[in-house]
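Please describe the entry underneath.
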Amino acid sequence: MGKTIRLTMAQALVRFLDNQYLEYDGKEHKFVNGVFGIFGHGIVVGLGEALAAGDHSLRFYQAKTEQGAGHTAIGYAKQNNRLRIMAVTSSIGPGALNMVPAAGTATANRLPALFLPADAYACRQPDPVLQQIETPHDYTSTASDAFRAVSRYWDRVNRPEQLMIAMINAFRVLTDPAETGAVTVALPQDVQGEAYDYPEEFLVRRVHRLERRIPTKGQIQRTADMIRAAKKPLVICGGGVRYSGAADELGKFCETFHIPIGETQAGKGTVLWDHPCNLSGLGTTGSLAANKAAKEADLVIAVGTRLGDFTTCSKWIFQNPAARFVGINIASFDAYKMNSEPIVADAKLTLQALIDALPGYTSGWGGKIGDLKKEWNAEVDRLYRLEDPAGFAQVRALGELNERLLPPDAIVVTGSGSIPSDMQRVWRTRVRDTYHVEYGFSCMGYEVAAGLGAKIAEPDREVVAVMGDGAYTMLHTELLTAVQEGLKIIVVVLDNTGFHCIDNLQHSQGIIHFGNEWKTRDKQSGRLEGALVSVDYAKNAESWGAVGLKASNAAELRTAMEKARSLDKPVLIDVKVTPKSMTYGYESWWRVGTAQVSANPEVEAAAQAMSAEIVKTRKF
């Protein structure tokens, strides 16, 4: 028997977290670098006591909402390309449940985040304890069970010695690129304070080694044969290209063989915008160039992407009946999608091997890639200079930020509404790892919190969270945390007075404008169709201790951003933009559940149009 040390479960947990490292390509990274949370009932005297002791290097960040804490940790992990993480903790009951949307965001985006919600007493003596959910038919079920559906690994430590197995499994998942996502380990509040003689070997420095999965000769041969047989192959660049560090390999692969690239939200900016093969975003929120190429493609090489319905236009965009698919992905679950030939291997190594396996090959695209790129560049130039007679266009505001007002290495964070759609189409990424968009879950309220996480990860870079007024009203309280920490982030709120992204979807299906605009209730009709509500977001930011600035045209935005960049504290710029001044679809489609029977003939017509397109989609 080796040596042991007597610690509470929470003390052992803190010591374990502080000693986890990740080795990738021969370089070690301290894997857990802090804890975000709110010390509510159920956590403060257990894990809180262990963190307060100070005999560790984990920094504690005081969040203002539990969901915000989770989003900040996710933003930190994403900006670190999954090589470093933060843990997130909360009280039991409502505090724990507030973290569930963030856990879903982590899992949908394949980003590692460790959630440590407090839980009801394992001993069941205080019964029911404050904030405990009682389930009469299953007394083992608590609020923390809600995390099961959104976690890649879930556990509950009902005895202090269970911590060891729980943590080994938790970090098995957190450090595995094929399995990673939210990991939830529920901590009953009595067990957190219970002592146990922990083996020292559990608590010492532990290095998790992320090994690249090497493609087999057979995989490379099969893929090379499919590429040789193709005249118009297309590459989809997903987030896995970024996390594999395969940007140079993908760029070289596509330039060598003259293959166009369509980007997902997670993959955008991995290959820079001016690469000759980069046709910008693909799919429902994609560019005209990439979508035109996708319709002609006879081979689709999906690299590191989960192939969500926005990327594939609900499996509609690939119109060539001869089109075949290759899925290069470290996760077999994703590699098999779209009936692909699965290549379950590392993206970087696979692309390197394919370059060597295809001497003399060139696609049949000829000059069309360049023509498509030229056409799209002209359209983006037009949008960036758009003059809207009704006011300041949202897409013009983005153009000002991208072309004139932000340094090329500024990190831009967004995640919901129409802004990610605009940015996937028109944002020109000039430096890698600066396009930070969460669109796997499109969780409103991600932006400010994740911007804070990105700033912690990259303190020497300008971090700008760009969001709509709808997302800001949902969650912005981590702006106070940024003030508290003295971390400068710039928040740009593009205020179009409502949830106009969803209003667009609603109206496109023949439905009247209903419930999505910031309007007062009309006394005669009883509906929300009265006067528009005006909100001063700059004053709201000032109330948190940030600097509030305003803009309603390009010149004012330039003045505000110049001032914002000169300051050393959090800033919010309230930008009033014209409703409906975002970009719209470019030869794209999205399947939605339009009502097939309605008193409104426009709705029924929209349903018939939807049915006509559904027959063009691939079935699996």
About this structure: Residues 251 and 275 are 7 Å apart (CA to CA). The mean pLDDT is 97. The chain is about 35% helix and 20% strand. The longest strand covers residues 113-119.
